[in-house]
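Sequence in, structure out. Go.
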Amino acid sequence: GFSKALLGKNLLSVLTTESGRGSGTNLLIQNIKQFNVKKLVACHEFFFPFATYFCHSLPSTHLYRITLVEVETGVPINKVLAICHMDTSGIPADHISLRVLNLSPGQGEACHWMLETDLIWIDEGESMV
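Output:
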């Protein structure tokens, strides 16, 4: 519905962070891959007794897939998604992301990790940079 209406009639792909797994140790960010997408739809789970998602799209959003690696061993622990909202003018002033960063809407960028329960819809025809 919403994702197809916003992204078009092409085939859509859904992406998510692999898992919530960590290592309990310091991690290193490696292999940062940026997706070359003009639009995306992010869906965040609401915690109800049934599956419910809040989906939205913001302009000027960059999407990345990042590998987290244990510093000591070099062992990959997880592949996670991160989103950077380059234009925060559409985010409400009282949103937690702006409060934590001490920003007003439109004042700067806001980047955050995506949980394994979050879904990111993109046009399958768009590729990674």
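Check: The chain is about 10% helix and 45% strand. The longest strand covers residues 61-70.
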